[in-house]
Amino acid sequence: MLKAILRDSLIYGLASILSRGLAIFLLPLYTRVLSPGDYGAFDLLITLGALVNLTVALEVSQGLARYWGDIAEPSEKRTLASTSFWFTLGMYSVFLLAGLVASSRLNLLVLGDAAYLETFRLGLGFITINGIYYLLLNQFRWELRSKAYAMVSFGYALMTLAFAVLFCLMLGKGLEGVMLGQLLAALCSTLICLWLLRTTFGFSFDVERLAAMLKFSMPLVPAGLAVFVSLYINRVALMHFGSLEDVGLFGIGSRVAGLSALLLLGIQAALTPLVYQHYREPETPGQIARLFSWFVAVALAGCLFLAVFARELLTVFATADYLAGASLVAFLAPALLLSQMYIFAPGIAIQKKTIWQLWVTLLSAAVSAGANWLLVPLWGVYGAATATLLAALVFFVAWLLVSQRLYRIPYNWPACASGVVAFIICAWVSAQLDQWDLYLPLALMLKSLLLIALSIVVVASGLLPLADIRALLLQVRQRVGRRSNV
Question: Would the N or C end of the chain have less CB density within 10 A of its end CB?
Answer without folding.
Answer: C
